[in-house]
Design brief:
With 174 residues, the protein is mainly alpha-helical. It contains two helices and no strands.
């Protein structure tokens, strides 16, 4: 989310509901399913934002590289300011690419968690309470349709573990 100061601020990932193994009642199931969906949407938003950012970096890098080639062919020196900008864009692109890889990994893990939940609900002859509870596997560059989403931040945004036993890890279904 872009704040009033023009800087990016972190969108916190919703914490999983905290209750013991199994669900005692429908409100707990609904709460867990809502958490699954909100987390999935947040990861999708972040992936889309990072993909757009990488596209912007590529475009900028391409333009600067073309400018550098043109200067070299004409026998002129490439302006130091442009060289610095090219270096910065290249570095930023690497950072954003790593963040994108992390998000994709987390999306995959979360999709597995959703699928695990859905299978357990079927095994227990229970249908999920929320109609949209089916896994959506994200294909790079493809986003499921839905309501417009707010852009998430980039720096320090997704250092979220999704492994059981770690802080903020989603509870596994019994």
């Amino acid at each position: 989310v872009i704040g009033s100061d023009g800087k990016l601020t972190q969108v916190p990932r919703p914490n999983p509901p905290s209750f013991g193994p199994g669900f005692v009642n429908n409100p707990q199931r609904a709460q867990y399913e809502e958490w699954l969906q909100k987390t999935q949407q947040l990861l999708q938003m972040q992936q889309k934002f990072l993909e757009e950012q990488i596209g912007a970096h590529r475009k900028s890098k391409k333009a600067l590289s073309a400018k550098q080639r043109t200067a070299k062919k004409a026998g002129r020196e490439f302006p130091e300011e442009d060289a610095e900008q090219l270096k910065h864009v290249t570095e930023q692109q690497g950072v954003v690419q790593k963040q994108l890889e992390q998000i994709r990994k987390q999306q995959k893990e979360h999709a597995e968690l959703i699928e695990e939940y859905r299978v357990k609900q079927q095994q227990n002859n229970m249908t999920p309470l929320m109609p949209g509870m089916h896994p959506v596997t994200a294909t790079p560059g493809m986003m499921p349709s839905g309501p417009p989403m707010v852009q998430p931040p980039t720096n320090a945004m997704m250092q979220i573990p999704l492994h059981p036993g770690q802080p903020n890890a989603p509870p596994r279904m019994p």
